[in-house]
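Course assignment 3, question 2. Fill in each field.
Student: A.L.
Task: Predict the tertiary structure for the chain below.
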Amino acid sequence: MNETRIHYHGELEEVRSDLIRLGAMVSETIGRGTAALLDRDLHAAQVLIDGDDVIDDFCLGLEERCYRLLALQSPIAGELRFILTSLRLISELERSADLIVNVCKASRRIYDVEFGPQIRGLIEQMGVEATFLIRAAIDSYVDADTSLASALDDIDDRLDELQVAYVQAIFRSHSEMNLNLQGAVQMAMIGRYYERVGDHAVNIGERVMYMVTGWLPEKSGAARQRLREAEAEAGVEAGNSTAQNDEAGEVARLDSPHEEGSGEVPDGA
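Answer field:
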């Protein structure tokens, strides 16, 4: 292997290492953002808001290096997929960090709200799940682990369920927390921000599948969407069929002379 190729592969490894570092930065941001929210720590929230510029600059520099590799090295096959996947991961991680910044901004708007035990517990769990998903997504990238990458969508279901439970808890306890409409909206959006972090982790998993197999995630995503639409349509048709059967049964019951209370006497009575 000539010196140019050795240097090129060294640059690819640097991209991988820096993406691991970026993933760690985002994971740490999730934990710190959750703590700032639960502790009502305005200073910690502001530090994270201001510190987002560091993540943005890091992402920009990493993107520029990836584009330079594309332009100068003309990678093909697996190396091309690695760089394209890395670019997508940079975007997904940067957006995840932005979502936690949104959590911090929302925490300032509801500073005077006292969280009940259930609300606090759900926020803490959402933070834990979001952190786990990001770390698992990065692990799948580093290890080229298609099993873990494909499992992220199912793992994300836990975070989706927590977000639904969280919103329901807000509506049940809004009077106890003395929430106005704006406060309730801010509280609900916090759950949405965590849920979106999970979605970004799932997107990373799909791109890892592409990196390893060459199979575009849009193909599998389109197939899943068609399956869901077919299942939904089948459910509607089944519901309509049941309703029609119930209606037919009701008509038959009303028309039947043997029905108790019909007012008619059967033949031979």
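Instructor remarks: Helices lie at 3-39, 42-73, 77-109, 117-143, 146-173, 181-213, 217-255. The chain is about 85% helix and 0% strand.
Grade: pending
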